[in-house]
Structures are given as C-alpha cells and as structure tokens.
Amino acid sequence: MSGLRVLVPIKRIKPRVNKTNTGVETAGVKHSMNAFDELTVEEAVRMREKKSPQIADILAFSAGPAKAQDVLRTAMAMGADRGIHVQVEESEAQGGIEPLAVAKLLKKVAEEEKSDLVLLGKQSVDDDAGQTGQMLAALLGWPQATQASKIELEEKDGSMWATVTKEVDGGAETVKAKLPMIVTADLRLNEPRYASLPNIMKAKKKPLEKKKLSDYGIELQQRLKTVKVEEPAPRKGGGKVEDVDGMLNKFKELGVI
C-alpha cells in the first residue's frame, strides 16, 4: 500500500490560572506547545524514520490565534512536513474552543486530508478535558486507543494495523485495530527531540496553510460554563518513621486505614 498520511493536531497552551480563578491567564504569559502534543509529533517523525511502513505525509494542525503558528513551526522543525492553521481569535472563543467543536473540526480535516492515522495528546495541560480524541473517534466511526505508551504498525493482507500498548489502572493493556485509527498519547510514549537550528530555519520554508472555521463549515457554540479554576494545593513535605509499626500508626493518624 502507499505511504500513510498522519494528522497530528497540536495546541498552543498557557498553563497558569488567572487571578479571578475563572480560567487560564492569557496576558503576559509564555505560551508553548502542549506537552502531550510534543509526544505525538515525535512519534509521527519516529514512524517515518523507521521507514516501515512508509509515511507519506505528516500534517501538523492547530486552531487558535495568529500566534498559534509558532507551535506549528516548531512541529515542522521537529519533522512535520506541513501545517494548517485555522485562525480563531480569543474574542471569538471566550474560554477556548470546546472539545466537541475541536473534534468536529478535526473530523472535517481528517476526511479532507484522507488521513490514515490521527495522533493526539491524551489531554491539554491547561483545561485538562481529555475528551477530544474519544469524541473524534466517535464522529468518524474509527477505532481508538487512548493513553498510548507504545505504538507498533504492521502491514497484513494489504491493510495496515496498529498494535497499541495503553496505560490502565494497575498495569497495561494491549489493543489492535485496523487503520484508519485514532490514538492519544501518554507521557511514556517517547522523549521528544529538540528542534535543531538548521531544522528551525528549514521549517520557515515549509508550507503553512491559513484557514478559517467557515472553510470547514464549523460554528463555535459555547455549551460549557467554567465556574471556577484552581491550581492544585501545594504538596506537604514527607516524614520518616522508624519501622513498620510506626508507618501503620501514621496511616491511622491520617485516616488512611
């Protein structure tokens, strides 16, 4: 079969709670690519480097303000072939684009680009919704594997199959499905590379297509209201115990047992 077409959606994130506890801070904060999305870009590039199966195209996709192009250029510096940016200003999407809208948008992109594999981070580290991959699989009617820590591709009887090891409570689960497929990445999938200066310069010449939501027939609709956002409480320091009995007594004091 011909080479695979891989779609890698990425998000420009801003992981700091604002002073009013109503969302994430957008002003005066350094933005970056979502950590889980770095893993999927890296995984797509590693698939190409293995040369079996052949990867014909790695498309990085993002929706957001004009500055979201920065993370697309980073993805291309890491090895993606091209990018598509759907410009959505913050005034259009107060509070961000909700997961269902993102999934509907990605469905259009995957169909238009004839994608064989969509690699997403399992969640974004600002809103932590963790829903987009699952919703996209449902909309497309494709098989899915979430929280992947290992992905293996193989061709069998003229079809491409993916075997995915995924993290579950208490261990790991291995699933296998025929492409096209949706896979979301967990932190143990790989260690993303740093983009070298020569590749950063090359990325500036790679094609970056600019589009609008209307090009895909998508309209934003706010279905969710954020009531409150809080940062996790600071961790308390640990303590030493002399023996097992001391540990058990400590657990009892804490109400653990």
Tell me about this structure.
With 257 residues, this protein is α/β, with parallel strands linked by helices. It is 26% helix and 28% strand. It has helices at 35-50, 69-78, 99-113, 132-140, 197-203, 244-254; strands at 4-9, 12-13, 32-33, 55-64, 82-87, 117-121, 144-156, 159-168, 171-178, 181-185, 208-211. It has a nine-stranded mixed beta sheet with strand order 9-8-7-10-6-1-4-5-11, with helices on both faces. The longest helix is centred in the first third of the chain and has 16 residues, at 35-50. The protein is globular and about 65 Å long. It is found in: Mitochondrion matrix.
Strand content: 25-35%
CATH superfamily: HUPs
Helix proportion of residues, in percent?
A: 25-40%
Low-confidence stretches: none
The secondary-structure element order is EEEHEHEHEHEEEEHEH
Keywords: Electron transport, Mitochondrion, Transport
Organism: Carpinus fangiana
Protein name: Electron transfer flavoprotein subunit beta
Pfam family, one: ETF
